[in-house]
Design brief:
With 197 residues, the chain is an all-alpha fold. The chain has two domains: 40 residues; 148 residues, Tetratricopeptide repeat domain (Serine Threonine Protein Phosphatase 5, Tetratricopeptide repeat, Alpha Horseshoe), CATH 1.25.40. It is 82% helix and 0% strand. Helix 5 runs antiparallel to helix 6 and helix 8 runs antiparallel to helix 9. The longest helix is centred in the N-terminal third of the chain and has 39 residues. The relative contact order is 0.06.
Length: 197
């Protein structure tokens, strides 16, 4: 019986050690990939350094919600500048930003609309329009009086999802029932209707 327990403990320890090494290797790979990018694209060094710095700061204090926005923005900035520098895998960094924003959304129990709209924006950059739609709609549900969330959703419907005129107008109409700044949405709706005549 004792031999079985010892064998089980040894197997469990080997499994845990292997899992730890796998995770550590994956993190090292991403850091070394970033170092290679810095060598090939020195103009991206600042953005890479920022992403690495904020990733470490978030690890130090995962309860600091502001860090999720800051790290997400750092990854987004790297993606934006990587696109400008013709970096082949620049979209990977929009995906990193999305992961960070999603982790922040979970951390805030799905109550932080800034994280939701940022996640929606990253999903849009990654051309996952249904996911972007979900995040914008969730932000509206959490904060139905915020005018910009309706504008984000209407623009997504118009430009990326190519929804019907009725569907786009319905977003503006719904917003005008719920927000204080009705004039902003009225102007946006009028401009949209004029563009689509």
């Amino acid at each position: 019986m004792i031999k079985k327990i010892i064998v089980f403990v040894v197997i469990a320890l080997l499994f845990i050690a292997g899992f730890y090494l796998f995770l550590n290797k994956e993190q090292q790979t991403s850091i070394s990939d970033l170092e290679i990018i810095k060598q090939n694209h020195p103009e991206l060094s600042k953005y890479i350094d920022d992403a690495v710095k904020w990733r470490e700061k978030l690890k130090e204090d995962e309860n600091n919600i502001e860090m999720y926005n800051t790290l997400g923005l750092a990854w987004k900035s790297l993606a934006d500048w990587g696109r400008n520098s013709k970096l082949e895998n620049y979209q990977d960094y929009y995906a990193e930003a999305l992961k960070v924003y999603e982790a922040g959304i979970e951390k805030t129990l799905r109550k932080n609309t800034l994280l939701m709209t940022n996640a929606g924006n990253m999903a849009k950059y990654l051309e996952d329009y249904e996911l972007a739609e979900d995040y914008y709609k969730e932000a509206i549900t959490v904060s139905p009086g915020e005018v910009t969330y309706y504008a984000l959703l209407a623009e997504l419907y118009e430009y990326e999802m190519k929804k019907t005129k009725e569907e786009v107008a319905a977003v503006y109409d719904e917003g005008m029932k719920r927000v204080l700044d009705v004039g902003f949405l009225e102007k946006r709706k009028d401009a949209y209707l004029n563009r689509t005549k």
